Amino acid sequence: MEHALVIGGSGMLAEACLWLAGRGFRVTVIGRNRDKLNRLATRDNRIVPLSADYYRENNFRAALRASLA
Fold first, then answer.
1. Pick from 12, 16, 36, 50: most CB atoms within 10 A?
2. What fold, for 3-68?
C-alpha cells in the first residue's frame, strides 16, 4: 500500500485526503485540531490522524518520530 503524508489536511485539504484514501493510499494527516482529524478519520479507515502543532518544531518532530515507530 502506498503512503501519503498531508500536513494541514483536516481543513480545506480534507477532500484531497479522502480522494487519496479512495485510491488505496494510506494517508497520514497532520493537523492541530484533534476533533477535525478524528472526524476525518471516521470517514475512511485508511486515514491515520496525527495531532501536532507544526509551528512548534520540536513537538512536531517528536510527533513524526512517534508515528513512524
1. 50
2. Rossmann fold (3.40.50)
pLDDT at 46: 97
Domain ranges of the chain: 3-68
Q: Taking a C-beta distance cutoff of 8 angstroms, is the pair 26, 3 a contact?
A: yes
> Exposed, middle or buried, 68 (CB in 10 Å: 0-12/13-18/19+)?
exposed
Cell 489536511 belongs to: 9
Indicate the pLDDT class of residue 65, thresholds 50, 70 and 90. Answer: confident
DSSP states of 28-68: EEEES-HHHHHHHHTT-TTEEEEE--TTSHHHHHHHHHHHH
Beta-bridge mates of residue 27: 4, 47
DSSP state for residue 60 in the 8-state scheme: H
